[in-house]
Structure formats: C-alpha cells, structure tokens
Design goal:
heterodimer, A: 114 residues, mainly beta, B: 114 residues, seven-stranded mixed sheet, four-stranded antiparallel sheet, globular
C-alpha cells in the first residue's frame, strides 16, 4: 500500500532561518503529492500540491518539487517567520486498496523563535 | 465562505454512550471523508463517500458508522463509545476521488471518551 515518511520533529529554528522538512513516499502508479499545514487548535489547510513528476508547488514562500526518481517531496522555505510555527503534513493521493484518498505522514512540528 | 463545517467542536462522552458528528460542505463536492487524528499517527481515514448514495470503509472503520444524508451532509456515528475513540475527528470533502483533486478539511471535533 501507499505510505509517507517525513522527518520527525520538532524542528526548532530562529526567525529568518532556512527550512527543509523531508518527505519521501511509497506508492504505486502516479500519485499526487500535497503539503498541509495545521496551526494550533485549527484544522488542516492545503499549503501546496504537485500532481506530476518535476512539478513544483509553491505558496506563501514555501515550495516543494515532486521528484519521482528519489520518491521525495521535500518542503522548503528560504526565511521562516514566527507565524510559520505549526505542524506540517506531507500527504499523497493515489490508489490504495481500490480507492483514492489521502495517505498522510505523521506530521512535523515547526517551532520558530524570534 | 464556510467550506466544510462540522459540529460539535468539543464533546465529552462516557464509555458506552453514543453520539453523531455532523458534517456539511457548501462546495458542491461529490466526495466526503471522515478522518481521525491521533498524536504521532498523522491522520487516518475512517470512512469515505465517493458520491451521494455510496459509503466505503477506510483504514480504521471499526466502531463507527456513517450516513451520506445528501450531497452536502456526511455524518459519523459512534454507537458505543470507547476510550480508544478519544481523538480529533476531521470531516473533509473533494470534488471527486481522482488523485489530483484537493481534499478540503473542516476545523475538527475534539472528542474525549472517559
């Protein structure tokens, strides 16, 4: 079946530091890849997505490139802000046991200090 | 701009009690989902409804039932709550179940079973 592995947190950074959160996946066929963000006490919001190999998703200064050769979709941001503190989930959507829905990683908490 | 709305936001149940989580979406989406989120586990699919009139089991369906009442509404019922069902529950929807479709989430329902 499908699976997503992302780096364990928490990731602790100072404001304006560079961020990378690693995400790798296992899937059959051609899944779509997503990053969701969850701020404290809130639901999940779509951050960005990529639907085919070599696509780059980007939003709010975050970006991730769909790398089929390395089965990866690492999240990056050049300069993080305190307001980026949240839990980030990597997810894929593809066929899994006959249905197509999201398979999530376990989440990575990001803490940004001033 | 409601999107996916779920109620209640917080609930405390005693073991053996029953309750229904309600969910409605106003995006005219065909597919709806119920997930649960547990610490260190990411989100796991409980049930989904690919279209009005159909429901199917996801990864962790035991102890739950669902009803797709109409295109807008998808409810999740716990017939006899157990402490293991203490979790945060998210309803979600998407235009369809194709891999590229984005899944949109509600804000979550925090359920504690004592």
């Amino acid at each position: 079946g499908n699976s997503v592995t992302q780096m364990e947190g928490p990731v602790t950074l100072s404001e304006e530091a560079f961020l990378t959160i690693n995400c790798t996946y296992t899937a059959t066929g051609y899944p779509s890849l997503f990053w969701y963000v969850q701020y404290p006490g809130e639901g999940l919001q779509l951050l960005l997505k990529a639907t085919k190999a070599d696509d780059k998703g980007s939003n709010k200064g975050f970006e991730a490139t769909y790398r089929k050769e390395t089965t990866s979709f690492h999240l990056e941001k050049g300069s993080v802000q305190v307001s980026d503190s949240a839990v980030y989930f990597c997810a894929l959507r593809g066929l899994n046991s006959g249905y197509s829905t999201l398979t999530f990683g376990k989440g990575t908490m990001l803490l940004v200090s001033p | 701009n409601a999107g996916v709305t779920q109620t209640p936001k917080f609930q405390v149940l005693k073991t053996g009690q029953s309750m229904t989580l309600q969910c409605a979406q106003d995006m005219n989406h065909n597919s709806m989902y119920w997930y649960r989120q547990d610490p260190g586990m990411g989100l796991r699919l409980i049930y989904y409804s690919a279209s009005e009139g159909t429901t199917d089991k996801g990864e962790v369906p035991n102890g739950y039932n669902v009803s797709r009442l109409n295109k807008r509404e998808f409810s999740l019922r716990l017939e006899s709550a157990a402490p293991s069902q203490t979790s945060v529950y998210f309803c979600a929807s998407s235009e369809a179940t194709r891999a590229g479709n984005t899944i949109y989430f509600g804000e979550g329902s925090w359920l504690t079973v004592v």
